[in-house]
Amino acid sequence: VPVQPVRPRIVASKCLGFAACRWNGVLIEDALVERLRPHVDFHPVCPEMEIGLGCPRQPIRVVRHEKTVHLQQPATGRDVTPEMTAFVGRFLGELTEVDGFLLKYKSPSCGIANVKIYSDLQAKSPCGRGAGVFGSAVRTRFPDLPVEDEGRLLNFSIREHYLTRIFTLARFRRCRESCAMRDLVDFHATHKYLLMACNQTALRRLGRLVANPDRLPPHEVLCAYRQELGRALARPPRFTSAINVLMHAFGHVSDRLTPKEKTFFLDSLEEYRAARIPLSVPVGLLQSWVIRFADAYLGSQVFFEPYPRALVAITDSGKGRDLT
Ligand code: SF4
Description:
Bound molecules: iron/sulfur cluster
Order of helices and strands: EHEHEEEHEEEHEHHHHHHHHH
């Protein structure tokens, strides 16, 4: 059964292409946000506008006094921590059923890492780096959701993992809406190779949940499955796990291949192992055989196309495939 397209729901920093709301009145054009627009339902938010700072505005900074973190505006001396804390609690408390976050890199509000932290209001240089107030609260409140910034998503591996997670969680959300065990069985079957690549132990635990030996009601099984799924997808697949999955898939078609085709495929796996070619090369070879042999089982595996092809881009920050 072909997997039907879904639209992930993503909370995004509003200045990333949705409104000119940065402190200096600028809108940031982000290529990934533009590519995602036709495929994703964005929920843009600007925490600094929400607390009434206006635009343009004097910039704010994260100031750490001993163990407490404040958001302060050096030009006015204003401390906006209470307003921001109240907004964050209200906004995140009302959020339901989102599949991930795409936040602004390095912002004192939205940043998730690498945000400059100062020891006092007038310090010229930062005393450390960390998360912004909104970004930090998002991570604490939604530990198993994909939360990234547009800077990290320049890395090919991080972007691939993020896109895989948001589309997988969106597919599961649809499955959960139907609250039918039949749909969960289909979800598990079509995601088997993807989960095998991410986390073999979690795949076994998820399989036991789907088998449902205790005859639990569907909503309980779906709830437990969602928790386990979040953990299963948390880490990107190691390249050795991807090779293991490709060998499994190869086993389905190898008896229909010529000796030269088999050798060519196995050689390409070794080249992938040595980081000389991308994963898409052996995956593309397998996909061509799935089409040629009309292999319904392999054709249903989302591992081969976990998110829309239109979102694939070979651009990379150049920091390597194992960066997470
Ligand atoms: S980084 Fe966040 S708070 Fe700052 S302008 Fe963008 S959306 Fe608003």
